[in-house]
Amino acid sequence: MAEAAILEVSGLRKEFGELVAVDDVSFSLAESGSLAIVGESGSGKTTTARMIVGLERPTAGTVVSCGRDRSQPARSTKERRRRGREVQIVFQDPYTSLDPRQSADEAVDEVVKLHQDLPAEQRRARVQELTELVGLDTREARALPRELSGGQRQRVAIARALAAMPRVLILDEAVAALDVSIQAQVLNLLADIRDQTGVSYVLISHDLAVVRQLTDDTLVMHKGRVVERGPTAQILDDPQVDYTKQLRASVPRPGWKPPARAGRTTGER
Amino acid sequence: MATPAPLLEVEGLSVRLEVEGVRRPVLRDVSLSLDRGEALGLVGESGSGKSMTARAIDRLLPAGAEVTGTVRFEGTDVGALSGTALRRYRGRVAMVFQDPRAHVNPVRRIGDFMTEALRMNQGISVRDAERRAVEMLGEVGIANGARRLRQYPHELSGGLLQRVMIATALLTEPALLLADEPTTALDVTTQADVMAILDALRREFDLALVFITHDLDLAAAVCDRTAVMYAGQIVEIHASSRLHDDPLHPYTAALAAARPDITRTARRLQAIAGRPLSSFEAPADECAFAPRCGYAQTACRERLPELVRLNGGVSRCVRAHELRSMLGRARG
């Protein structure tokens, strides 16, 4: 375990009635580190992310960011804002996570205002710095969400998350819906931001090529449990567990033929 | 013996749609042909026109669409079909969509949905139609077909429902399946299953396939040839096996290079500057990709490039010949 862990998750569990969505998930993330959580729908990866941010309350286990526990609901506004400065999340769909009546710079400004007590001029400069960091030009920064493309909207969502100056940014399928040429721009941008700010990433993704590009370490989740973990390169080049091998073999690549899987004709749901 | 006519021939297909009160092009001079049993990938980013092409082929364009050019299926002009003939055509050319849940009635049982076309258009009895539906469910790997027919869509997972959609599409014994991102919403292992099933069925039923996807690797893996679209035009058609090592158009090469590689971490991805252009934003008299293209020259902005034949494929690039050896190497 790294000593300077910025995020420490241990024994995390979430039950929804009878269903155990997340079962005993533990990991630690170092400053400037990047961890991927991969798995398919129902694997519990998004529920894990939501518990880390505080959108779901764990049934058991703890989440500690910057040395402070955040597994229980915040008891004051001050505490909630402090947590917001520690961990932020960007969702897959930039269409539903932005206020349609708020321009890009207003959306960013709102978060800056909340987290930093700055005089008007410095605040404007900070908003401009953030929109420039994510590669929005001045016209785009003044545009409403509907006037922006999906990639531009996702950059607004990233700028907004960064406005809180978080130590950890959770990217929940944040590049999945983007066109390939835009996805490459956003992935490069995320790498630059990490170099510049030292932010740590938790990437929730089903896309193993994106995982390879952005993360150092990987957790593979299946049915709520971590089935394999290790350095990303090692997990993808030499998977040990059958489930990881199957995931890896399902990724199309030149010369790939869809592997026929046993048990396809069973009465699965 | 004379060469048999292609199953599907699309020639100079252009479509314009009214967007915010103005008629705008969505497809620009699309031509392609498909033989019986052949699989063609149709790859492109948002707004490239790939879905519109499939809709135009199946005569499913929105009302008020202005269409020029021709679509011929088994030698018949599809644009001239109406009534019974059009319904019969849609049985021969079936379509599967990205989101199966958006294309079924959630309060009707799977059986109703699957047998509707057979009962309504072909006058087949409920019992016979259901028997055929159960058989076809078996073909796509779904056991207990009779039980499935009594279930509602919400009782099935996305992957299972998509297999139901494929089985339904095949019930009318089509010669051509238009599959529009049929696996995009599915998990990667489920995608592999569905692709394996499509691949097997295609061979078994001598079914031609137009497979629409944003995933160049997926298209290349399952299709004989791949057409790459940009801004409402086809910019390249090439054998899928050559697409990666011998791309004929700079956009194809750029698309392949921009995608992260699962086998290695790039220091930086070779992103394509700017954003994909929709067909209705594209200039009418110059190369639509030129503003984002690393190889663009003055000539690219002087006229609309024609499709040129090259190494068994076609490319809509004025510099296609001179760039050829460079594009394949450009991929990092």
List the main descriptive attributes of the protein structure presented here.
heterodimer; A: alpha/beta; B: 332 residues; alpha/beta; 22% strand; globular
Concise description?
The complex is a heterodimer of chains A (269) and B (332). Chain A has ten helices and ten strands.
Question: So, the CATH homologous superfamily of chain A?
Answer: P-loop containing nucleotide triphosphate hydrolases
How big is the Rg of chain B? 21 Å
Outline type of chain B: globular
Helices and strands of chain A: which structural class?
alpha/beta
In angstroms, what separates the terminal alpha carbons of chain A? 39 Å
Dominant shape of chain A:
globular
- The oligomerization state is heterodimer
Q: How much beta of chain B, percentage-wise?
A: 15-25%
Describe this structure in words.
The complex is a heterodimer of chains A (269) and B (332). Chain A has 269 residues and is of the alpha/beta class. Chain A has ten helices and ten strands. Chain A has helices spanning 45-53, 77-86, 104-115, 120-133, 138-141, 150-163, 180-197, 208-214, 232-237, 242-249, and strands at 5-16, 19-30, 34-38, 60-65, 68-69, 87-90, 168-172, 200-205, 217-222, 225-231. In chain A, strand 1 and strand 2 form a beta hairpin. Chain B is an alpha/beta fold. Chain B is built from ten helices and twelve strands. Chain B has helices spanning 50-57, 83-92, 110-122, 126-139, 145-149, 158-171, 188-204, 216-222, 250-258, 320-330; strands spanning 8-19, 22-34, 39-43, 66-73, 76-77, 93-96, 176-180, 208-213, 225-230, 233-239, 308-310, 313-315. Chain B has an eight-stranded mixed beta sheet with strand order 6-7-8-3-9-10-12-11, with helices on both faces. At the A-B interface, helix 6, helix 7, helix 8, helix 9 and helix 10 of A face helix 7, helix 8 and helix 9 of B.
